Amino acid sequence: MLPKISLSHNEVHVWQLSLSNALIDWFEYARLLSKREQDKVARFRNPLHRSRAMAVRVQLRLLLSNYLMLEPQQIDFQTQQYGKPILSNTNLAFNLSHSGSDGLVAVSMNPQMGVDIEHWRTLDNIDGMVERNFSITEKEIWQGIPEEHRIPAFFQHWTAKEAFIKATGRGLGLGLARCSFDVVGDTRLLACPAEYGRPVDWQCHQLGTGDRKSATLVIKANTCQLVLRQFNPKF
Questions:
Q1: Alpha helix stretches (DSSP H) within the chain
Q2: Domain span including residue 148
Q3: Hey, which of 147, 151, 159, 225 has its CA 20 to 30 A from 94?
Q4: Cβ neighbour number for residue 197 with a 10 Å cutoff
Q5: Is 59 domain-assigned?
Q6: 201 lies in some domain
Q7: How far apart are CA 181 and CA 67, in angstroms?
C-alpha cells in the first residue's frame, strides 16, 4: 500500500485513469473486487468493454485505498436512494466517469460533486438530442454556435449537465433539461431546480484531459482548489 494521500477540506483531486494499458492484465486483479462487481464485469460481451470495465473498477479501489488506508478489497460501497455510489463509514466522497479508454475519478470531502468525461464523436441525431435534453436557454445558445464548433460545444454542454445531475445524487431521474449551462468561454450554471440552491452556489470547471475530449467537474462550494493528476496503479 502506498503512503496515505492527504486531502484538505476545500480540495478536489481529479485523477485521470488509463483503461487500455496493454502491459497490465486487469483480470489478474479480479480478486480485489466484490462478487457483485465481478458479475457486472462478466455481463459485458465485448472483450474490450469487459477489459475496460475491469480496469476502471480495479483502479478505483486501488486509488481510494490510498485515501482510506485500507486494502482495496476491504473498501465497502453502498448506494444512495437514487443509485449514486458512496463509501461506507467515511466522509470521503468520490465520483467516477469513463469514456472509451479514459476514466476520471474525483475525490473530495464534499459529496455534492460530479464529474463527467466524453470523447467527441459524430452523432446521427444531434439535433434530436438537443431538442430532448437541452433547456430553452441552452437551445437559444445552441442556435448561435457555428456548425463547425457544434461537436465540442455539444459535448461540453453534455458533460456539464451530466456532472451536475450526478452531483445532486438524482442522476438521469432529475432530467437533463432542468439544468442550464453556458459553455461559451468558462462553463457556468445558469439555472437549476430550486431545491439545489442558486446557480451561483455551484462551481464548474472544464478539465483539460486531452484532444477531442470534454470533461467537467461540477461542485456545490464557495471555494474549490482543484488538483488534476494522472493515476499510476501500483500493485
A1: 35-42, 47-68, 126-133, 136-143, 150-168
A2: 116-227
A3: 151
A4: 13
A5: yes
A6: yes
A7: 32
Q: What is the pLDDT along the chain (235 residues), one digit of tens a residue?
A: 567 899 988 999 999 999 988 778 999 999 999 999 999 999 999 999 999 999 999 999 999 999 999 999 999 999 998 989 999 999 999 999 999 999 999 999 999 999 999 999 999 999 999 999 999 999 999 999 999 999 999 999 999 999 999 999 998 889 999 999 999 888 999 999 999 999 999 999 999 888 999 999 999 999 999 999 999 998 7
Asked whether 78 and 102 are in contact (CB, 8 A), the reply is no
Burial 52-69 (b: 16+ CB within 10 A, else e): bbbbbbbbbbbbbbbbbe
Query: Does the residue 133 lie in any domain?
Result: yes
User: 215 and 132 share a domain?
Assistant: yes
137 plus 219 within the same structural domain:
yes
